[in-house]
Amino acid sequence: MTNTINLMLAGPRGKMGSEALKLVERTDHFQLVACLDRKHDGMNINDIDGLPNLDAPIYTDANQAFDEVNADVLIDLTNPEVGYEHTRLALLHRVRPVVGTSGFTTEQLNEIKRLSEDYQTGVVIAPNFAMGAVLMMRFSQMAAKYFPNVEIIEKHHDQKLDAPSGTAVKTAQMIEEARESQKQGHPEEKETMSGARGADYDGFKIHSVRLPGYVAEQEVTFGQAGQTLKVTHSSTDRYSFMSGVHFAVEQVIEHDEYIYGLENLME
Question: Which PROSITE patterns match (predicted)?
Fold first, then answer.
């Protein structure tokens, strides 16, 4: 019999947060014990119209929530500013964070890693929780060894705050590990409009598209004389991310260290 995992959820009214509530509702061994929200302090999550009927108090003060509630795992699906503070507080209280917020700075990630080590408390930060996206990144890393010329195009909804996406950055880092650094394109290439060729990473380009109608999509295109190879992944619904959230919650309970990227938990 699987042991019950007590969960605190940050951002329950957001699009990702509301999907996470549905995940908790349909998972027998997940128990929601509190929510962090910037509104509705002292209310119960089941008092909010349109959300699943779960019984858990709402806190606007994260410190108070961690002091008063016995949680095993924090799920944070908010934004970089509050997500970093929630993650930091969770580790200080030895609550294991599962974080789907992209846009953390290198300094913030280093601090989270240090706290995880100091408190021997596991944390999972995932640029993308869709299992297909994780496989897309892995396949791209495999291809980069044989197709070193590459560009990344990532497409997201127009409300996304950071560009490039955390998934694109993570993909670029994995590609960098697999190929020798090289400057791509014509050596005398010039942009007649600034930014036309996208952002530069290790000599290759990353392009970001922001339009209504997208949830999340990424295409990694490799080029070689006489052929091209494309590795793509599309999330058409935020439900696609919940399998990874479920997986990360169950995995973080078994780990006492900092983990960046779901691929590091997959065999």
Answer: DAPB
160 is catalytic: yes
71-99 tens-digit pLDDT? 999 999 998 889 999 999 999 999 999 99
Is 101 annotated to bind a ligand? Reply is yes
Residue 128 known to bind ligand: yes
Q: Is 240 a known ligand-binding residue?
A: no
Percentage of the chain surpassing pLDDT 90? 82
156 noted as active-site residue:
yes
| Residues 60-70: tens digit of each pLDDT | 999 999 999 99
Task: Return the half-sphere exposure (C-beta side, CA atoms, 13 A cut-off) of residue 94.
Answer: 5
Total-model pTM: 0.80
Active-site residue identified among 156, 170, 207, 246? 156
Q: Which of 40, 113, 160, 255 is catalytic?
A: 160
Give me the domains of the chain, ranges plus CATH numbers.
Answer: 5-125+239-264 (3.40.50.720), 131-236 (3.30.360.10)
